[in-house]
Amino acid sequence: MDTKRFSDPLSLQQIKVTDNFWKKEMELVRTEVIPYQWDALNDNVPGAAPSFCMKNYKLAADLNARKKSDPSYEQPVWTTSNFELVPEDMDHLEERFYGFLFQDTDFTKWVEAVAYSLTQHPDAALEKLADDAIDVVCAAQLDNGYLDTFYIINDQSKIFSNLRDNHELYCFGHLTEGAVAYYEATGKDKLLKTACRYADYIDSRFGSGEDKCKGYPGHEIAEMALVRLYHATGEERYLNLSRFFIDERGKKPYYFDSETDHKFTPKPGDTSLRHFYHQAHLPVREQNEATGHAVRAVYLYSGMADIARLTEDEGLLAACNTLWDNIVNKKMYITGGIGSTNHGEAFTYAYDLPNDMAYAETCASIGMVFFARRMLQIKPDARYANIMERELFNGVLSGMALDGKSFFYVNPLEVLPKACREDARKFHVKPIRQKWFGCACCPPNIARLLSSIAAYACTENEDTLFVHLYMGCELKKKIGENKVSVQITSGFPYHGNAAIEINSDVPVQMTLALRLPDWAEKCTVNGVTSKNDEITDAILSEIAASTDVSSANISDGYLYLSGTWSGNQKLNLDFPMTVRIMAANPSVREDIGKVAVTYGPMVYCLEEADNGNNLHLLRLNCEDPDFKITPDAILGAPSITAKGYREEGEKEGENLYHVYQEPKLTKCELTFLPYYMWNNRGEGEMSVWVRKM
Amino acid sequence: MDTKRFSDPLSLQQIKVTDNFWKKEMELVRTEVIPYQWDALNDNVPGAAPSFCMKNYKLAADLNARKKSDPSYEQPVWTTSNFELVPEDMDHLEERFYGFLFQDTDFTKWVEAVAYSLTQHPDAALEKLADDAIDVVCAAQLDNGYLDTFYIINDQSKIFSNLRDNHELYCFGHLTEGAVAYYEATGKDKLLKTACRYADYIDSRFGSGEDKCKGYPGHEIAEMALVRLYHATGEERYLNLSRFFIDERGKKPYYFDSETDHKFTPKPGDTSLRHFYHQAHLPVREQNEATGHAVRAVYLYSGMADIARLTEDEGLLAACNTLWDNIVNKKMYITGGIGSTNHGEAFTYAYDLPNDMAYAETCASIGMVFFARRMLQIKPDARYANIMERELFNGVLSGMALDGKSFFYVNPLEVLPKACREDARKFHVKPIRQKWFGCACCPPNIARLLSSIAAYACTENEDTLFVHLYMGCELKKKIGENKVSVQITSGFPYHGNAAIEINSDVPVQMTLALRLPDWAEKCTVNGVTSKNDEITDAILSEIAASTDVSSANISDGYLYLSGTWSGNQKLNLDFPMTVRIMAANPSVREDIGKVAVTYGPMVYCLEEADNGNNLHLLRLNCEDPDFKITPDAILGAPSITAKGYREEGEKEGENLYHVYQEPKLTKCELTFLPYYMWNNRGEGEMSVWVRKM
Description:
Largest sheet of chain A: 11 strands, mixed
Largest interface: A-B, 53 and 53 residues
Radius of gyration of chain A: 26 Å
Structural class of chain A: alpha+beta
Oligomer: homodimer
């Protein structure tokens, strides 16, 4: 492990996003998603199933207060196995927990997004709203530090009795992420202290000590959250607890088997299969295939990468790399989507990537972004950043409508709207984005990711600034006692140009590491052009000279410019974007005979609105596609047109089967738009993959 | 309705199957399936879940006897909603019903197969076995005629309280089918009388009278069974009861909504959708799309066809034809398989025919055979017979292994064994035939169909013998007071030749109606050859002359030879079989760019055993396939080889996605075998559809 290349994301106080593309997305989150989310968690969205999130916190706080003022007060005990999602009589609620058992996270995800948003766009009213809500949340905490309203309200004797199913440690993880984010954004530590007290309580119950519980999260996230808490507080206990969860996972005898409170009991004999879903079938260092629930999986792997870096654990890093490769080389849609089945929202076997029944949950793509950034923090290798970029521009953004008002959980690569309504196998695929979800994970997850997008653009260590994404921003980089200002502008995602301006009052020794995107064949640095895979020492010298630094090197897809920087220096970069026809590994049965069109980092797709229905009858002329790019053609994005053919469709009264005759083809123009923009013009067919001619 | 063209199947006493192909299948049923089935329904199959069928009948009989000997005996009442499939302690069974609630039909289906088998192969020991079992079954009948052990044993107060789910009228239907078959085969009427008493009881409870219940079967079959009972007894009440069930179905308010004993209640608001599954969403005459559970559907349509014919109901016949066309032109696999989803074992929407997730239940194909024969009885039109033949040689026979020892419920058109084990969406698709099923519908259904296959080969009316299938057989046809002997020999299904020998001691006026199969382009009749679609009057005269009859006509795909027959007359027929490349209607998305290979009535497929794995990489050279037929090449059947190509597979270390390059193709030979024979040489990939070049 080359610890010198380790890096960390920049504090959001240090970096301001100015990017045309991303700023717009962030503004949608700020102006649409965050207010909507607040209404949702306060049950103020007409027509939507109530969240009960704040109601639950208030009730828990109330019960605490009651017990304090009257020690003889006996709290009623409710069953924890049959909780009510939506009570029959909304006007006469009982004093019990309502909603999904992870409903606390509606608030903790919201407050995390709020925190990030405040760093980029201060807003006193919003901060006040959050502060007041935090008061309620903190009042719900038990004296011992425990804070999960489901068990606080329903039955405190059952705390930590069903880690596998009941999401307590997941809720803790989101509380912690939110608390750290809010502390880092505002300097206010009330929620952070609450998270610490809860973490301390968990630490007192879980661990390697003889009397301690050997359990671990049923839905991972606490692993990476504890690492953030460790960063924020310097408390090694939190790092160790995270490591404990990771080390303990998948050991035999299986901890989850010792729990007796499960609602669903797997069949006897099914000794290891049943743990795949939770990535608890094997010790994590022995896992070599991404399995089970995709979000859980990538959240775990993100935590593993954190621990591998912080504890310099080569074995754990090797497992991370094996799992990364398994996903990227065997189990990922071209859009970055992962988890190809709705059965368990899970990974299946290698190369099983059905386009019309994909799950490809938005949250799983977000989790891949977490994983990628953490791998980049260990080793700046463009293969991680390339995937991170692909996820962001495709599998993540497709989850939200262009107006920020509706969302996809599931991100299919092929849609026939009729099938989504009439074929039970595809009921999980929605032909149109939804306003909100009872189980609201994806919209708030998009909100917290997009609000903190700057934390993915660059990372840094003592002397190096790594530019992973060419995102317009202004940042300050400390070099020793000095501060260097860096301003990045870019034409991404539709133009491959970027400019980096560095200002330093005094000369500083610094390295700038610039990712060479995998979709570009060439790069131009201050006028020096080369093919990406043919950058010779001579060219590097020329680049170094042109940029006025002492050395230029290439390593793992990054161009390193090192030397003394002073005054105002400018770098002009260009990574020419071209339309590329992509094919899948021939082992992907669903994509055989088909191709996909990409442009720079963007995967494109066909929509019915531009191409008529029956997209399966279309074929792309791969030999002579004659691609044409028209700027701002569709919803403000460039469209791509190409030569294609339409196969003759059904003839009036045609039999279901007939003697084969060469089908008649009519020349036509195919029109592609960026995948993430699909379904912003009403319902219709969509397909990423098109048959080739 | 042209009642002169109506016809009936021949009594199995009148016709003996001698066909090489079918006789072998019948012998498998006689020697393998029927004995195995007997063991199964007596819980004597080691390793298989017990049926409890005969145990339930015995217990019901015992309870009856107890009550008769001791009128004060109080039978315990069990819940009818939580019945036990397999009790935990097999050694200490309680006096209650066990197994599926339609378990009675394990016996009634068996006795029906036994009956048919006895007509073709008398067997005193088997008949004795059946007689003894019938004694037990009849003893289980209540004094009022009711006979369903589930309710007799568990709770008689609940009789007919849940027609939608609980299969009572389905069990009645199978009892009736078995009883009529056994009576017709043996002349013994004990079971028939029992069925009549039960029918009378049902008739006393259901009907249009004011006090009567307006219910109808949740799983259809009683409709066609009652028609058989009417034929066997001449009792018009049975015909009327069948008609009542058909007329009442789907009327509003929905009868099923009035039942309160349902285990599953559909959501409010879901007013008509929920009845699609049972084909009870609309009055049957208004139904124009095949919906819901495929077996239920085609059993209903068969009953509708019976009633349409017997009551000369044009409206009902029109509905039958509409539904027939909807299935055949929109919802049927090329193998004849119907019901393309496992969700409800049901039809979906038009052209939704996924190959690797097909349900295509063997029983549904069998139901299509029932439907087809009944449509043929109304109108001898080859389009019904062509489908009937396709079902028999493909979708039905694929349900049973060549050794008669294992069975498929589900008949996919494409299989990747790994997917069946690892992808929950395909868990219903088995990569290998199973020994038996707890819910044993398909194996006994195959047994009763194959044992009575002669009833599908020909039908007759007063003066005409219709030959629908060219099946080797010997039959007697009554013409007035005389009996004509007819002997058919044929090379089917792999050779299109057939010979028909007619012997009549005295000259008789008779018409022979011979189906011209849709897969043959030409036909030769006694040396006179013509293209099927170009048979002129001159050719017909020539044919008439050559066969020594006075007239030859073509109508609806049948050649009618009419005149005086006497002495010994021979017809030599030939329908040359060719290999045909078939394509699906371009609206079938799953088959676009693909073709299937057929030979005569047989659909062929590719198997891994002959073609290696990764069948999706193979392509058929459609322009120059150079088909070669090798007799007896695979499992005794002719193989078909063709020129093809194998696309280059995965290269070592290949990325999941790469810039498209024209794939490398290697010439290879493709080897096809009859679809119904797939999976008789161990587990492996299979595909009916192959990509075209």
